[in-house]
Design a protein that fits this description.
There is one protein chain. The chain is α+β, with helices and mostly antiparallel strands. The chain has eight helices and ten strands. It has two domains: 106 residues, GIY-YIG endonuclease; 120 residues, no CATH class. Strands 4, 5, 6, 7, 8, 9 and 10 form a seven-stranded mixed β-sheet that branches.
């Protein structure tokens, strides 16, 4: 049975959604965790891509070794599979310890909302204070990521692109703040701005930057008390009150 290259119809009809892992047989190292149904667990070895996961698979095969596959849990609903996959990705890719070897690009399902956090991070996440415009002392671009976070691989990617911005104001932006469900969750310092043209021929801006949330903790986990409900524009400029 070790030579199974796809599941039988009977197996597929029986296992429902499942969560699986891929293991490098050379060192018994888990390098990828995923979820799916049907023959999803076998699909990675057929992909042609430049992702680190695919490079690892190619390296394993070229060495004469094989990719071991384990089904961690099966008989799950789709939402159960989402949550279990997210929990395992959090554990294996956490910055809380060393030797993180997971090659997943995407974070787990709803990892910002209910992903793994320290005790202090959990408290800070839910016990938030209000912030007003008068509390902001830097020239900031506030970016609401409620929609973009659903498809982006992390908060940074959801925040950095692609926005309709004023060409004249970009040079004055010191910080970009990610707002998620009315709460400021991360702060980035833009290093370089790029423009691109969308499918409608409109110019949009994106930035390359660094996470400076720890340096500007006064803006993190704060509820936006000046947000106007019903506002459709996902971006807003706030020029700091430096006094």
């Amino acid at each position: 049975m070790s030579d199974v290259i796809e599941f039988s119809k009977t197996t597929i009809e029986s296992i429902d959604y499942y969560v699986y892992c891929l293991i490098d047989s050379r060192n018994k190292q888990i390098f990828y965790i995923g979820k799916g149904c049907g023959n999803r667990v076998f699909a990675h070895e057929q992909e042609v891509a430049e992702k680190e996961k695919n490079k690892r698979i190619a390296d394993i095969k070229s060495s004469g070794a094989n990719v071991q596959k384990f089904i961690i849990r099966h008989g799950l609903t789709e939402i159960e599979a989402f949550h279990l996959e997210a929990a395992l990705i959090d554990i294996f890719s956490s910055k809380a310890w060393n030797d993180r070897n997971l090659l997943n690009i995407m974070g787990g399902y709803h990892s910002l909302d209910n992903g793994m956090k320290s005790i202090s991070e959990i408290e800070a996440f839910y016990c938030v204070d209000d912030i007003t415009e008068e509390d902001i002392f830097h020239n900031c671009l506030i970016v609401n990521i409620n929609k973009t976070y659903k498809t982006a691989k992390d908060v940074y990617e959801a925040t950095r692109k692609s926005w309709k911005l004023s060409d004249n104001k970009i040079k004055d932006i010191e910080l970009v703040i990610s707002e998620y469900h009315k709460v400021f969750r991360a702060v980035y310092k833009p290093i370089k701005w790029h423009s691109e043209i969308d499918e409608k021929g409109k110019k949009r801006w994106l930035f390359e930057g660094i996470d400076v949330s720890s340096q500007y903790s006064q803006y993190v986990n704060k509820k936006n008390s000046f947000k106007i409900d019903g506002t459709r524009n996902p971006v807003r400029y706030i020029w700091g009150k430096r006094g």
